[in-house]
Amino acid sequence: MSKAERKELTDLGLKKEPPASSGKRKYLWDSKTEGLGLRVTDKGAKAFVIMPRIRGELWLKTLGTYPQMSLKDARVQAGLLLSRIRAGEDPRQDEKEAQKIARAEAIKPSDAFTVREAVAAYEKAHISRLKPRSKLEARRPLEKILLKRWPEWDLSEVSKAHIRAVLAEMVEAGNPVAANRALANMKAFFNWCVSEDRLTANPCVGIRQPGGDETSRDRVLSDQEIRTLWPILEETGYPFGALAQFLLVTAQRRDEGAGLRWSEISDLDGENPVWTIPAAKNKGGRLHEVPLSPLAVRLLKSLPRIAIEFPEKGSPVISDYAFTTTGKTPISGFSGGKERTDEITKRELARVERETGKAPAPFTRWTLHDMRRTAASGMARDDIPPHVVSRVLNHSPGKAEGITAVYNRHGYLREKRHALEGWAGKLESLVFPVGENVVRLRGQTN
Questions:
Q1: How many angstroms separate the CA atoms of 134 and 190, rounded?
Q2: Is residue 260 part of a domain?
Q3: Which range marks the domain in which residue 372 is found?
Q4: Which residues, at least 6 apart from 357, have a Cβ–Cβ distance to it below 8 Å?
Q5: How many domains would you assign to the chain?
Q6: How far apart are the C-alpha atoms of 52 and 33, rounded to whole Å?
Q7: pTM of the model
Q8: What's the rounded Cα separation, in Å, for the pair 54 and 85?
């Protein structure tokens, strides 16, 4: 919480505080006592909470309802908890011990089921049957949240307060949509646990979307934004900056681009280079051929080749991944690269303002998926037929072509190449000065 979000709570202010808007809840944070706040629901119910950070993790605890608990008593209780935390204690253990006692009274020891065991069972019974992309989405919150934080806890120990605190942390870090996705997938997991008689109640029930209501995204980068962003991505560097450029040029999905292997590319030095995405690696579950434009080829050839083994004799063993930091796995941590890109963007906009005396247009928040949408829109503006754009994007043919898709097995490789080369030509005209017909790649000078 920033200082701007805090103000000194008073009894008069708490009494007059109106309910939150319909379907929402709000928090008022006290500037006098660290971490102390008042939670207000849309029904007008009020309760004191505290949200300190313990060992790097945010912890949300309800202290008592207002006005049954006075502001003075809430500050005293918060102060006692904070003193314990500063002394190295972990008050969360109190809840854990209380839950263990309650569980011991309610169930037999043989019924214990750890979070790790539950996730493994859910993986076998449910996740393993999903499509590749759906598997990734279903696993992510279970691995990043449940297994990372509470792997050996009994399943019943994971409470609504624990989940709320983690989701609040995600929203605070600037990932509201990811928090919504995490809640949805954890809710499905706990529903399965209830159906298997491993839990009596789903702790996610009653938790509203932490990131708020979502609207359909239609973000498309303008020509000027592309001109501004391209050199910023070059400065961001490998692998994130290079991946973002490659996705803009090829119009493919983030995870498919991130998992690109050199062995999936054919004829890179020839006249008809193609990137073949196996059916198991793409959302549609279909083998997908992506013709590589000259710009895409030059971008790929500019990438470093990462060695993963250095035998005593012979040449180093080179990683098959095009975008990687370890050489053994594809790039997966996108937030760090995005943060660096955003920092460079702010710096560049400030520089332009200093040099011109005019504030440039603000650069609206964007995601890697917006690169794909921008490319698709660019091809449509160049009068590429919708069914060809759909093939480039590897959308289901049935959605774009109806019943004829059942009989039409034409791969549209020639048409896709025409579309992608035309789009790449448009990009080159935007990001490189007139008369400069050689792409300036990372590490090169004019």
A1: 17
A2: yes
A3: 223-431
A4: none
A5: 3
A6: 11
A7: 0.56
A8: 7
Compute the average pLDDT of residues 245-270: 95
Q: Is 132 found in the same domain as 63?
A: no
Tell me the average pLDDT across 83-100.
78
- Beta strands of 366-405 (E only): which ranges? none
Burial 397-408 (b: 16+ CB within 10 A, else e): beebbeeeeeee
Q: Both 13 and 158 in a single domain? A: no
Q: Count CA atoms closer than 13 A to 360's CA, side-chain side.
A: 18
State the chain's mean pLDDT as an integer.
Answer: 85
Q: In this structure, which amino acid lies at residue 311?
A: P
Is residue 131 over pLDDT 90? no
Residues 145-193 have pLDDT tens digits of 999 999 999 999 999 999 999 998 888 877 788 889 899 999 999 999 9
Burial 84-107 (b: 16+ CB within 10 A, else e): ebeeeeebbeeebeebeeebeeee
pLDDT band at 293 (very low <50, low <70, confident <90, very high): very high
Considering the domain architecture, whether residues 178 and 245 belong to the same structural domain is answered as: no
Q: Do both 179 and 234 map to the same domain?
A: no
Select the more confidently predicted residue: 88 or 299.
299
pLDDT the model gives residue 445: 38
Question: What CATH number should be reported for the domain holding residue 58?
Answer: 3.30.160.390
Residue ending a domain, choose from 179, 195, 211: 195
Residue 61 in any domain: the answer is yes
Same domain, 178 and 280: no
